[in-house]
Design brief:
Elements: H1 8-24, H2 27-37, H3 44-60, H4 64-81, H5 84-100, H6 104-121, H7 124-140, H8 144-160, H9 164-180, H10 184-208
Protein backbone atom coordinates (compact mmCIF):
# COMPACT_ATOMS: atom_id res chain seq x y z
CA UNK A 1 0.00 0.00 0.00
CA UNK A 2 1.51 3.31 -1.08
CA UNK A 3 2.00 5.97 1.53
CA UNK A 4 -0.48 8.83 1.25
CA UNK A 5 -1.96 11.37 3.57
CA UNK A 6 -3.11 9.11 6.36
CA UNK A 7 -6.73 9.92 7.06
CA UNK A 8 -9.97 7.99 7.25
CA UNK A 9 -10.06 6.83 3.57
CA UNK A 10 -6.49 5.50 3.84
CA UNK A 11 -7.24 3.37 6.88
CA UNK A 12 -10.61 2.19 5.59
CA UNK A 13 -8.86 0.89 2.47
CA UNK A 14 -6.03 -0.57 4.53
CA UNK A 15 -8.48 -2.35 6.82
CA UNK A 16 -10.41 -3.67 3.83
CA UNK A 17 -7.20 -4.97 2.26
CA UNK A 18 -6.25 -6.69 5.53
CA UNK A 19 -9.67 -8.37 5.62
CA UNK A 20 -9.21 -9.65 2.07
CA UNK A 21 -5.83 -11.15 2.95
CA UNK A 22 -7.36 -12.78 6.04
CA UNK A 23 -10.15 -14.37 3.98
CA UNK A 24 -7.55 -15.63 1.48
CA UNK A 25 -5.56 -17.20 4.31
CA UNK A 26 -2.58 -14.90 3.73
CA UNK A 27 -2.08 -14.23 7.42
CA UNK A 28 1.34 -12.63 7.02
CA UNK A 29 -0.04 -9.71 5.00
CA UNK A 30 -3.27 -9.62 7.02
CA UNK A 31 -1.28 -9.20 10.25
CA UNK A 32 0.96 -6.59 8.63
CA UNK A 33 -1.94 -4.36 7.55
CA UNK A 34 -4.12 -4.88 10.63
CA UNK A 35 -1.16 -3.76 12.76
CA UNK A 36 -0.81 -0.62 10.64
CA UNK A 37 -4.50 0.08 11.25
CA UNK A 38 -3.84 0.23 14.99
CA UNK A 39 -2.12 3.60 14.40
CA UNK A 40 -5.50 5.16 13.54
CA UNK A 41 -7.16 6.22 16.80
CA UNK A 42 -9.92 8.41 15.32
CA UNK A 43 -12.27 5.55 14.37
CA UNK A 44 -13.03 2.99 17.08
CA UNK A 45 -14.55 0.49 14.60
CA UNK A 46 -11.26 0.21 12.71
CA UNK A 47 -9.27 -0.04 15.94
CA UNK A 48 -11.59 -2.60 17.52
CA UNK A 49 -11.90 -4.64 14.32
CA UNK A 50 -8.12 -4.76 13.88
CA UNK A 51 -7.52 -5.92 17.46
CA UNK A 52 -10.27 -8.55 17.21
CA UNK A 53 -8.95 -9.88 13.88
CA UNK A 54 -5.36 -9.98 15.13
CA UNK A 55 -6.53 -11.93 18.16
CA UNK A 56 -8.46 -14.32 15.91
CA UNK A 57 -5.57 -14.85 13.46
CA UNK A 58 -3.02 -15.55 16.18
CA UNK A 59 -5.52 -17.86 17.88
CA UNK A 60 -6.04 -19.76 14.62
CA UNK A 61 -2.25 -20.04 14.30
CA UNK A 62 -2.15 -21.34 17.90
CA UNK A 63 0.07 -18.44 18.90
CA UNK A 64 -1.98 -17.94 22.03
CA UNK A 65 0.28 -15.47 23.82
CA UNK A 66 0.07 -13.05 20.89
CA UNK A 67 -3.65 -13.70 20.52
CA UNK A 68 -4.35 -12.92 24.17
CA UNK A 69 -2.20 -9.79 23.98
CA UNK A 70 -4.54 -8.24 21.41
CA UNK A 71 -7.69 -9.64 23.02
CA UNK A 72 -6.74 -8.16 26.41
CA UNK A 73 -6.06 -4.79 24.82
CA UNK A 74 -9.40 -4.77 23.07
CA UNK A 75 -11.17 -5.99 26.21
CA UNK A 76 -9.81 -2.98 28.11
CA UNK A 77 -10.69 -0.58 25.30
CA UNK A 78 -14.24 -1.94 25.11
CA UNK A 79 -14.67 -1.51 28.87
CA UNK A 80 -13.74 2.17 28.50
CA UNK A 81 -16.31 2.56 25.70
CA UNK A 82 -19.04 0.45 27.38
CA UNK A 83 -19.06 -1.79 24.30
CA UNK A 84 -20.55 -4.83 26.00
CA UNK A 85 -20.70 -7.12 22.97
CA UNK A 86 -17.02 -6.60 22.20
CA UNK A 87 -16.15 -7.00 25.89
CA UNK A 88 -18.08 -10.26 26.22
CA UNK A 89 -16.77 -11.67 22.95
CA UNK A 90 -13.12 -10.88 23.70
CA UNK A 91 -13.44 -12.57 27.11
CA UNK A 92 -15.04 -15.59 25.41
CA UNK A 93 -12.18 -15.80 22.89
CA UNK A 94 -9.55 -15.59 25.64
CA UNK A 95 -11.35 -18.36 27.47
CA UNK A 96 -11.21 -20.53 24.35
CA UNK A 97 -7.48 -19.83 24.01
CA UNK A 98 -6.83 -20.95 27.57
CA UNK A 99 -9.07 -23.99 27.15
CA UNK A 100 -7.13 -25.01 24.03
CA UNK A 101 -3.88 -25.18 26.03
CA UNK A 102 -5.50 -27.00 28.95
CA UNK A 103 -5.56 -24.08 31.41
CA UNK A 104 -9.10 -24.72 32.56
CA UNK A 105 -9.02 -22.49 35.66
CA UNK A 106 -8.13 -19.43 33.58
CA UNK A 107 -10.59 -20.46 30.86
CA UNK A 108 -13.45 -20.67 33.36
CA UNK A 109 -12.61 -17.22 34.75
CA UNK A 110 -12.86 -15.64 31.30
CA UNK A 111 -15.97 -17.64 30.40
CA UNK A 112 -17.68 -16.48 33.60
CA UNK A 113 -16.75 -12.87 32.78
CA UNK A 114 -18.14 -13.27 29.26
CA UNK A 115 -21.31 -14.93 30.55
CA UNK A 116 -22.02 -12.25 33.15
CA UNK A 117 -21.79 -9.48 30.53
CA UNK A 118 -23.78 -11.44 27.94
CA UNK A 119 -26.64 -12.09 30.38
CA UNK A 120 -26.86 -8.44 31.47
CA UNK A 121 -26.69 -7.21 27.87
CA UNK A 122 -29.07 -9.82 26.40
CA UNK A 123 -26.39 -11.17 24.03
CA UNK A 124 -28.12 -14.51 23.66
CA UNK A 125 -25.79 -16.07 21.07
CA UNK A 126 -22.69 -15.42 23.19
CA UNK A 127 -24.58 -16.48 26.33
CA UNK A 128 -25.48 -19.84 24.80
CA UNK A 129 -21.95 -20.56 23.54
CA UNK A 130 -20.38 -19.55 26.86
CA UNK A 131 -22.78 -21.78 28.82
CA UNK A 132 -21.79 -24.66 26.56
CA UNK A 133 -18.08 -23.98 27.01
CA UNK A 134 -18.36 -23.85 30.80
CA UNK A 135 -20.46 -27.01 30.76
CA UNK A 136 -17.83 -28.76 28.63
CA UNK A 137 -15.00 -27.97 31.07
CA UNK A 138 -17.06 -29.00 34.10
CA UNK A 139 -17.92 -32.23 32.27
CA UNK A 140 -14.22 -32.96 31.75
CA UNK A 141 -13.70 -32.32 35.47
CA UNK A 142 -16.45 -34.88 36.21
CA UNK A 143 -18.60 -32.20 37.86
CA UNK A 144 -21.61 -33.62 36.10
CA UNK A 145 -24.46 -31.94 38.02
CA UNK A 146 -22.91 -28.47 37.60
CA UNK A 147 -22.14 -29.23 33.97
CA UNK A 148 -25.73 -30.24 33.31
CA UNK A 149 -27.05 -26.91 34.62
CA UNK A 150 -24.92 -24.94 32.15
CA UNK A 151 -25.87 -27.19 29.25
CA UNK A 152 -29.56 -26.80 30.16
CA UNK A 153 -29.16 -23.01 30.19
CA UNK A 154 -27.57 -23.20 26.74
CA UNK A 155 -30.33 -25.52 25.52
CA UNK A 156 -33.02 -23.08 26.69
CA UNK A 157 -31.53 -20.38 24.44
CA UNK A 158 -30.87 -22.75 21.54
CA UNK A 159 -34.52 -23.88 21.59
CA UNK A 160 -35.82 -20.31 21.85
CA UNK A 161 -33.84 -19.21 18.79
CA UNK A 162 -34.03 -22.48 16.82
CA UNK A 163 -30.25 -23.02 16.87
CA UNK A 164 -30.27 -26.59 15.61
CA UNK A 165 -26.53 -27.26 15.54
CA UNK A 166 -26.19 -26.14 19.14
CA UNK A 167 -29.21 -28.20 20.14
CA UNK A 168 -27.61 -31.27 18.59
CA UNK A 169 -24.33 -30.80 20.49
CA UNK A 170 -26.10 -30.08 23.78
CA UNK A 171 -28.43 -33.10 23.59
CA UNK A 172 -25.41 -35.34 23.00
CA UNK A 173 -23.55 -33.96 26.03
CA UNK A 174 -26.62 -34.19 28.24
CA UNK A 175 -27.02 -37.80 27.14
CA UNK A 176 -23.42 -38.56 28.13
CA UNK A 177 -23.96 -36.95 31.53
CA UNK A 178 -27.12 -38.99 32.05
CA UNK A 179 -25.17 -42.19 31.29
CA UNK A 180 -22.48 -41.29 33.84
CA UNK A 181 -25.23 -40.66 36.39
CA UNK A 182 -26.81 -44.05 35.56
CA UNK A 183 -30.00 -42.30 34.41
CA UNK A 184 -30.55 -44.48 31.37
CA UNK A 185 -34.16 -43.47 30.81
CA UNK A 186 -33.13 -39.83 30.40
CA UNK A 187 -30.15 -40.89 28.30
CA UNK A 188 -32.47 -42.71 25.88
CA UNK A 189 -34.83 -39.71 25.62
CA UNK A 190 -31.93 -37.32 25.03
CA UNK A 191 -30.43 -39.60 22.38
CA UNK A 192 -33.80 -39.66 20.64
CA UNK A 193 -33.93 -35.85 20.62
CA UNK A 194 -30.33 -35.74 19.35
CA UNK A 195 -31.25 -38.04 16.45
CA UNK A 196 -34.36 -36.02 15.60
CA UNK A 197 -32.43 -32.75 15.47
CA UNK A 198 -29.63 -34.37 13.49
CA UNK A 199 -32.19 -35.62 10.95
CA UNK A 200 -33.76 -32.14 10.73
CA UNK A 201 -30.37 -30.60 9.97
CA UNK A 202 -29.67 -33.20 7.29
CA UNK A 203 -33.08 -32.61 5.70
CA UNK A 204 -32.51 -28.85 5.60
CA UNK A 205 -29.12 -29.36 3.98
CA UNK A 206 -30.60 -31.71 1.38
CA UNK A 207 -33.39 -29.23 0.60
CA UNK A 208 -30.79 -26.54 -0.08
CA UNK A 209 -28.82 -28.73 -2.52
Amino acid sequence: VEKQKKGYPYYVNLHGLANIYMKLGDFTNAIKYFKQCLDYKEDSEITIGSHVNLGAIYGFKKEYESSNYYLKKINSLCKEQNNFQCQSLSALNMGENYEDIGKHKEALEYYEESLEIAKKSELYGIESITNQNIGRILYLQKRYEESKLYFLNALHIALAYDLLNQQKEIYLKLKEIAVYQNDYQSAYALMTRYSEVKDSIAKMQNDQD
